[in-house]
Specification:
It is built from 13 helices and 17 strands. By secondary structure, the protein is an alpha/beta fold. A hairpin with a 2-residue loop joins strand 15 and strand 16. The longest helix has 21 residues, at about 335-355. The protein is elongated and about 80 Å long. The termini are far apart. The model has no long low-confidence stretch (mean pLDDT about 90).
Length: about 400
């Protein structure tokens, strides 16, 4: 049998069939490979397997007892049903083969750091991940989305994982859904309605308690990104950023990590969050600083340029941001709202400073350019941010 040893994981390709006629030989070969390689985990690749009998299932059971960390992948529908009907899917992890999909000619409705969202048809949306995104990360995002949905946050949950060439994708059933950005541009007369719902969605996210055993703490992630900037920032600068991050009050509510008008879809008049890859728990400041970065900071240098992230012009994006602040902090009055806006702007510059650790596609020269701007615009007043978050 074809096999590959990757570290301590042995992957074995199963034959076309395993039945009473060849089960003894298959068992001898599988356990011979285990004896030769002494793996800590075994993966049975069933991509080329069309049938497995009870004799073959007994081999799988022996394998599971000999090497507890064993699983079956790429099982066809017929093979998966054999495992499922016999109860073996409760004994060993069995994963179906991924069906192939194409995005040729499909409309792009959103793009982000992890991939591109396509409309396949009126009912179906596909999030196609970058080739560098491992399947484990995609499965993790799906689990995050389910966790958020069960907790009461409107979000889209994928019903299938597929392959498109060398990339994986998540399929969502979202009938006639469109991005918030698209809806705002097509229906400017409904801006106030969309703005109100946007604020309600953000507030729901930030007032919903997360299962902290399943999610990471956002402060841990920001501290990690800060450390990854050690080749460009000084030790004093890194220490200062750590102090600011760690001074933020602890919370156990959801943080999305990338809220913007292309990561919010409208379906039947209701707003739904997508792109749950970066969801964590912690203080809402970590979402507000990101929104300040996309709504305010990114377009400030050239307000005439359409905003690539928001897919809105600068003035419309700024109006949406200001409405959000009024809805959330209106009780503070105009001066209080201004102070919150200034706070979020300052924290947005903190993320700007470590942006190259967040988006690892930047080359060294561009990183140095961003750090130079941060030394002009962020660090001179950065100490004031220690303990500045009080809401």
């Amino acid at each position: 049998m074809e096999h590959i040893l990757d570290g301590k994981t042995l992957t074995i390709k199963l034959p076309l069939r395993i039945d009473s006629g060849n089960a003894a030989d298959a068992e001898s070969e599988i356990f011979g490979l285990i004896g030769e390689n002494a793996p800590e985990s075994v993966v049975l690749d069933a991509e080329g397997c069309e049938y497995i009998s009870s004799a073959g299932l007994r081999i799988v059971l022996k394998l599971k007892k000999a090497v507890p960390d064993s699983k079956v992948i790429n099982a066809s529908t017929d093979v998966y049903e054999i495992f499922d009907m016999t109860g073996f899917s409760e004994i060993i992890d069995v994963k179906k083969a991924f069906r192939e999909m194409s995005v040729d000619g499909c409309e792009i409705i959103g793009q982000g750091g992890h991939g591109t969202v396509y409309r396949i048809n009126g009912d179906t949306i596909l999030k196609l991940y970058k080739e560098s995104e491992p399947l484990s990360e995609i499965e993790c995002e799906i689990e995050y989305a389910r966790n958020a949905f069960v907790s009461g946050i409107p979000t889209a949950i994928p019903f299938d994982v597929v392959k498109c060439g060398n990339c994986y994708g998540s399929v969502f059933e979202l009938i006639n859904a469109e991005t918030l950005a698209s809806a705002i541009k097509k229906n400017p007369d409904r801006f106030d309605e969309y703005s109100r719902k946007y604020a309600e969605l953000v507030n729901t996210l930030h007032t919903t308690e997360a299962d902290t055993s399943r999610l990471s703490n956002i402060k841990d992630l920001y501290n990690q990104w800060t450390d990854e900037m050690s080749g460009f920032l000084t030790a004093d600068e890194i220490e200062l950023i750590h102090k600011i991050i760690n001074s933020v009050p602890d919370r156990n509510t959801f943080v999305h990590g990338d809220i913007h008008t292309k990561n919010v879809l409208i379906q039947d008049g209701e707003l739904v969050l997508i792109d749950m890859a970066d969801i964590t728990y912690g203080h809402p400041i970590f979402d507000y600083l990101g929104m300040s970065l996309t709504h305010v900071i990114a377009g400030r240098e050239n307000p005439e340029r359409p905003h690539m992230i928001l897919d809105l012009d600068y003035e419309t994006g700024l109006r949406l941001w200001n409405d959000l602040l009024k809805a959330r902090f209106g009780s503070l009055g105009e001066e209080g709202i201004k102070q919150m806006n200034d706070l979020f702007f300052a924290f947005g510059m903190l993320k700007f400073t470590i942006a190259s650790a967040v988006n690892k596609s930047h080359d060294d020269e561009f990183v140095k350019f961003l750090v130079g701007l941060s030394r002009e615009r962020f660090f001179p007043n950065a100490e004031k941010l220690i303990g500045a978050v009080r809401f």
